[in-house]
Request: fold
Amino acid sequence: MDIVYFAWVRERIGRPKEKIDTDARTVTELVEELRAREERYALAFSDLSALRVAVDQELTDFDAPLDGAREVAFFPPMTGG
Amino acid sequence: MQDAPFDLGAEAAAFAAGRKDLGAVVTFTGVVRDNAAGTLQAMQIEHYPGMTEKALTKIAEEAAARWSLGDVLVIHRYGDLTPGELIMMVATAARHRKDAFEAAEYLMDYLKSRAPFWKREITTTGESSWVAAKDEDEDALKRW
Reply:
């Protein structure tokens, strides 16, 4: 699965994207796996209310299923316009 | 979606040109605003290639479903911009102005907090910070 990061999430984790093998069934389970990896992940995911998630480029919730998902993106609330 | 500047006059003139059934055209332009201290050197705009196009299309389609529109245009830049530069524009065309105005406001409200863009400000004093999303921008979606 491709995991992509934007804005300060990308900066905290130190890379724009990575490929991982995971059995996570939901976004929340994926976040738990990532948090357990290293301190920088734990820091980036310390406050989920400050984060948004997209699964296969569609904005969704943290309890969304990952069934068949190819790409999960984590980023701060958007500031367009 | 583009990193290059756009010509507001040319875009506005070409938009819905020749459509004799559309009596109202509304355009909104977003400009890079200097910070309160007047020290903004650059605004960097990051986006999510692929998702950005999908999100903008979805927002425009939603507007077209809610209002009677003859045409819709959204241009949004990314990359490094300086104060006074144009960031983005939306244009809506309708038979009557109410549809054109409301749809333009709707597009702007959704672009602010549902299109995957992130802004970072760099100051002449060397500081760099991500622009935080405002609660009022999220609240603005509730009226639709």
The radius of gyration of chain B is 16 Å. Chain B has a mean pLDDT of 96.
